[in-house]
Write a structure and sequence with these properties.
It comes from Caproicibacter fermentans. This is Siphovirus ReqiPepy6 Gp37-like protein. Residues 2-335 form the Gp28/Gp37-like domain. The chain is mainly beta and 347 residues long. It has four domains: 17-83, no CATH class; 86-175, 3-Layer(bab) Sandwich (Phage tail protein beta-alpha-beta fold), CATH 3.55.50; 191-207 and 277-335; 214-273. It has helices at residues 38-43, 102-114, 144-154, 256-273, and strands at residues 17-23, 29-35, 49-51, 58-69, 73-82, 96-101, 123-125, 134-139, 158-164, 169-175, 191-193, 199-207, 214-220, 226-232, 241-245, 277-284, 301-306, 309-323, 326-335. Strands 1, 2, 3, 4, 5, 11, 12, 16, 17, 18 and 19 form an eleven-stranded mixed sheet that branches. It has a three-stranded mixed sheet with strand order 7-10-9, covered by helices on one side. A three-stranded mixed sheet has the order 14-13-15. β13 and β14 (226-232) form a beta hairpin.
Length: 347
């Protein structure tokens, strides 16, 4: 356990249960239950950091609850989110207009709004991963974490704040996963199926409500000229159209081509919010061939077979539950129900 200044406070020797939920596109969360005694009461306080030596994420305690029961005695419950939630404490100010890689965009807005200006304590940039996906956008006044989530989903790329406790730093990193589906040959494949007896408690969801794959993006220049751009993600599917008002995007000194590209990128972001919601959730059973965090991990694209369906989807969440000496690992794959994300200005 560490305090907010990344100074070690002690070691948590025992707990009754731990739920550790990792997320690829946003901060994960955790919930810890332990007997309430002098040691746990001093360690499990709001603002302290739960650092696991075997994980690249760390959790920040945001809530504490102490209860007493005649059956179980005094218990303390500590819950919170992973450290990347610290980025929700900043907004993007001043405005930024960017064209380049998504990774560079994420690094720039973190550096400009939480390191070089209005710094978050101990925050630094890690090494660049050199990821290729591109973006073009304008934004101001939006929450930093909200924009990072939108950029990550558009790539797709994950991000985290990795604790470097030896040097007392939070290291901002962008990362990707590997393709481990049965259809590819570059990496050993990962397949969860009844045939391999490595899956249980399965659930599948498909929701096409609000699904769109083609966007018209409209904006007006200062002289009143209407500019219309298109974003086409049909890929041979029947067209389902979406109208996007991008009146907050200003041409400024951009060329006509650069301006239309920013409009097209806004359309792609809007279509990401209107994607099909398709996901598969199941408890994974570690086997010699398919071991969690050795053969597959958060962010990887893996294969599932169940009910006559085969899905090749990215692991966007992993929930780890440790209780009564048993570990349960539950990956969640696919596209969750869409949420409203807007890179425009607040107001």
């Amino acid at each position: 356990m560490y305090n907010a200044a990344l100074e070690q406070q002690g070691v948590l020797d025992g707990f009754t249960s731990l739920r550790w939920r990792r997320r690829f596109f946003e901060p994960g969360e955790f919930e810890l239950h332990a007997p309430a005694n002098q040691d746990t009461l001093s360690l499990l306080t709001a603002g302290n950091i739960l650092h696991r030596l075997d994980r690249q994420e760390a959790g920040i305690i945001e809530s504490v609850r102490i209860t007493s029961s005649s059956e179980t005695g005094d218990e303390i419950e500590a819950a919170g989110r992973m450290a990347s939630s610290l980025l929700s404490r900043r907004v993007i100010q001043p405005a930024v207009s960017f064209s380049g890689t998504v990774e560079d965009a994420m690094r720039k807005i973190v550096a400009d709004n939480a390191i070089s200006s209005r710094p978050i304590d101990f925050l630094t940039l890690g090494e660049s991963g050199g990821f290729a996906p591109l973006c073009s956008f304008q934004t101001s006044g939006k929450n930093l974490l909200t924009v990072l989530k939108a950029l990550g989903k558009s790539a797709p790329l994950g991000f985290r704040l990795r604790p470097d406790v030896q040097n007392r730093k939070w290291v901002f990193e962008v990362y990707s996963g590997a393709d481990r589906t049965v259809a590819q040959t570059l990496n050993p494949y990962i397949l969860f199926s009844d045939g391999f007896s490595n899956i249980s408690g399965s659930s599948y969801t498909l929701d096409t409500t609000g699904f769109c794959n083609f966007a018209y993006v409209c904006a007006a220049e200062e002289d009143g000229t209407v500019v219309l751009a298109e974003a086409d993600l049909t890929n041979g599917e029947p067209r389902r159209e979406l109208w996007v008002d991008a009146g907050d995007l200003q041409k400024g000194s951009l060329t006509d081509e650069e301006y239309r590209e920013q409009l097209r990128q806004r359309g792609i972001q809007s279509l990401a919010e209107a994607a099909k919601a398709e996901n598969f959730e199941a408890s994974a059973v570690d086997t010699e061939n398919f071991r969690y965090r050795t053969d597959w991990d958060l962010g990887d694209i893996i294969s599932f077979e169940k009910w006559g369906l085969r899905l090749d989807q990215r692991v966007t969440e992993v929930e780890e539950v440790y209780e009564n000496g048993t570990a349960t690992i539950t990956p969640v794959c696919g596209t969750p129900l869409p949420e409203t994300l807007d890179l425009g200005s607040e107001g």
